[in-house]
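W.,

You were right to be curious about this one. When I first looked at the sequence I had no strong expectations either way, so I just let the prediction run and decided to look at it fresh. Below is the sequence, 328 residues in total, followed by the output.
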Amino acid sequence: MFSRLEHSSVSDQKMNTNMTGGLFKLKFKALGTVCEVQFRAPSVEIAKEFRKSALGWLRDFEERWSRFKPTSLLCRINAEAGRSGVEVSKTDEEILKLCEHTFQISKGLNDPTSLPLTNLWDQAGRENRIPSSREIEEAKNLISWPTVEWGNGRVFLPEKGMALEIGGFGKEYAVDHLIGFAKRLGIVDCLVDLGRDVAALGQPPNGPVWVVGIEDAKEQEVVAFRLAVSGKGLATSGNGRRYRMIKGKKFGHIIDPRSGWPTENDLLTASCLADDCLTAGILSTNACIVGEKKGLEDIERSFGVDAVLQTTNNNIHSSNIHRYVLGS
């Protein structure tokens, strides 16, 4: 049994505070996906405060950093590319610091200025055509996070046509932020799931750990692995489910900024466990770009990170993932 704090959007204000079973369940839509948060709170008042903080922050985050909202700060920054800088707050600069962090950790494979390539391939998918070599090179030439000028309360994209996006880490960052709210309110048992980017604290009422299923990359609605998650973040990246169909061929949604083409290798999905969801997301996406061999090497070299990689032929995993796998 659990209490239900259900929402059709982050702006819905209704809440059922029945504490039967001690577990609240919050459902809503945000960041373009279905989200769910389960938690046990010491009191109804703390549960309400957590709900207010989490949904309020998510609403503000989306209003400022969604590329699908024309009035967002992100869209204003992109509209001023090559013309003038845009003033940003200290809170906004934290997102720019994350852009730098993800760029460095991913060794440039997660470039926050990659939106021109994403837009090019999205348009190509709608028009059912392969982009020309010239179009790809023109888009690649606009991808250059190191040239972005930011700091001291402003950000400036130096070339017309450049564009930021935070889709490469936005949901994972949001997951970690909500876990931070829970910790500050003294909530010790919590599971945050934002479109299958996950982090967990403590345990559920009916078991020692939260159990998260990893979907089979080849068969929908089939669980390939069940992982025990507590004090960890979990992120899955891949092209097995998300792709563009162009002239009868599947092109994955993850694009390699080095070539300008969607990634094409035997790796279908990479599911990473790390101390935070952001790190898990960066490493899982990187693995999908560089392939299973190099991706697994990078994961094994990362402290406290484990992974399961599903390929077209078999499944491979990091040396210590057995500590978390409960069964298939």
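Here's what jumped out at me. Residues 1-9, 11-20 have pLDDT under 50 and may be disordered. And, maybe more interesting for your project: Helices lie at 44-65, 73-79, 90-105, 115-127, 133-140, 170-184, 277-290, 292-300.

Coffee later to discuss?

I.
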